[in-house]
Design brief:
mainly alpha
Length: 239
């Protein structure tokens, strides 16, 4: 990433070269949308990494000294140190990969394809009607069941209960997005679709990044975007 391999532009260093990518500047729109508590944790982690080479500071070391410190920390560092490195990798990856020049170099194209049978339907009519009311009708709602989360589990449970004749309310922290409003820019998608902008981490040793969806449809909305419909011959063979 940093030196720029092949058609990839280099990441900006202490003295940015012409045409280099500034991951920090690209991260500013993302950080501006995060909860203050998340930003505080990020700031605390970066501050800890800054002082890990004590009595020297990471940002005031030479590029060669920084590379050597990161190499040793990756191989010999404690679990906490490696967690801090993981945080930096995630943030720098976000900032670098969101640059249009990087996306062009790797052939990244964002689009929303619609199946031919759905192409003639209006988005609201085709995608919105099965959801029922999206806004509360008043200050209070009465229901037989309340489902928290609209992902694969919650949505199925709500459907089964509703088809059985019960009144069901589904609570979801994120917005409803269809093919007309689904984000086509990475930073916008991360902030719109993920809890804490995809920085949720399963605590443990090692810490594992666990991006969690925050939209109607839950994490399934995101994961299904990387899937394709199973071909009919395959379904017949499975049956």
């Amino acid at each position: 990433m940093a030196p720029g391999l092949g058609p990839l532009p280099p990441a900006a260093g202490p003295e940015p070269a012409p045409g280099s990518v500034d991951p920090v500047a690209n991260l500013e729109p993302l950080l501006a949308t995060l909860p203050r508590s998340t930003v505080a944790r990020i700031r605390l982690g970066l501050r800890a990494l800054e002082w890990l080479p004590f009595p020297w500071r990471f940002s005031r070391s030479s590029p060669a000294a920084r590379r050597e410190f990161l190499r040793r920390a990756e191989v010999e560092g404690s679990a906490t140190t490696r967690d801090l490195l993981l945080l930096c990798k995630v943030l720098s990856g976000f900032g670098y990969a969101s640059d249009p020049r990087v996306q062009a170099a790797v052939g990244y194209v964002a689009s929303c394809a619609v199946s031919p049978e759905a192409a003639g339907d209006s988005p609201g009519e085709h995608a919105g009607s099965p959801l029922g009311e999206l806004e509360p009708s008043g200050r209070e709602e009465e229901a037989d069941f309340v489902i928290v989360g609209s992902g694969a589990g919650g949505a199925v449970a709500a459907t089964v209960l509703a088809e059985a004749g019960f009144e069901v309310v589904v609570l979801e922290a994120g917005p409803y997005l269809d093919r007309t409003s689904y984000p086509d820019e990475p930073i916008a998608a991360i902030t719109a679709l993920y809890r804490d902008a995809g920085l949720t981490v399963a605590m443990g040793r090692p810490a594992v990044p666990t991006p969690v969806g925050r939209a109607v449809g839950g994490t399934t909305v995101i994961n299904s975007g990387t899937c394709f419909r199973t071909p009919e011959p395959v379904l017949e063979r499975w049956a």
